[in-house]
Amino acid sequence: MEKIVITQFSDPMMGLSWECEPALQQVVGQFDGAVDLNDRMVVLVRDVADFMTSAERALSPEEGIRTYNARLAQIYLDEQAIGGVPINMNGFCLFAPDRRSSLPLCLAYEAAKLVDPAQARPFLMRLRAATVQECRPTTKHDEIMRVVRLCGIDQDAFVTRLENGDALAALKEDARYAQSLGVVGLPAFSVACGDRMAIIRGVATYELLMRAIDSVTFD
Q: CB burial class (10 A; 0-12, 13-18, 19+) of residue 27?
């Protein structure tokens, strides 16, 4: 049988993707090397104002975003029941008036993947853990560089890919590919084997993943 490739379309800040990880790892373990995991980034929050309520936007930028962060933290906590992976929201401050987007997280993943493909997924997992389990403000550049160091990725090469446009070009390509598959909401998954593909929109449970694998591997 050809390799099965499961591609997740997501953003490093997504708690739902964090909660899908147990199901993904269960499938990978069950197929003993026959399943590869791949990740493609789609920016979830281009500007935090797009997700704020009118009441939150009416406040000062500091207070409005602080209020939004508190509301978002509760959403993360509610998602914990999906996969049972711990989420910590103590002091959650992912966004601020000078940090209004999750774009830096997506660009960081792309830069890491370009510099050290073998570390791309470990980097993504550490970045997610820092965001939703350690509750660190990972939209800050120094927090991203901390994860780069933890993963042993060449820091100079990472910054070069981040600043010379390569990471942005890769992110745009991921967005184009997602659009070509009709992926709109996040997270989403493609399950492919050879020239056959199935799409899962939303949370990928073990049952949904197995059903998709069956559809692409059996006549």
A: buried
C-beta atoms surrounding 120 within 10 Å: 20
Distance of CA 126 to the CA centre of its chain: 11
Q: Tell me the C-alpha distance between 201 and 181, whole Å.
A: 11
Distance CA 28, CA 4 (A): 10
List C-alpha distances in Å: 105 to 32, 82, 196.
Answer: 31, 23, 31
Q: Is the dihedral of CA 208, 210, 211, 217 positive or negative?
A: positive
For 52-107, what is each residue's pLDDT tens digit? Answer: 999 999 999 999 999 999 999 999 999 999 999 999 999 999 999 999 999 999 99
Residue 1: what pLDDT?
67
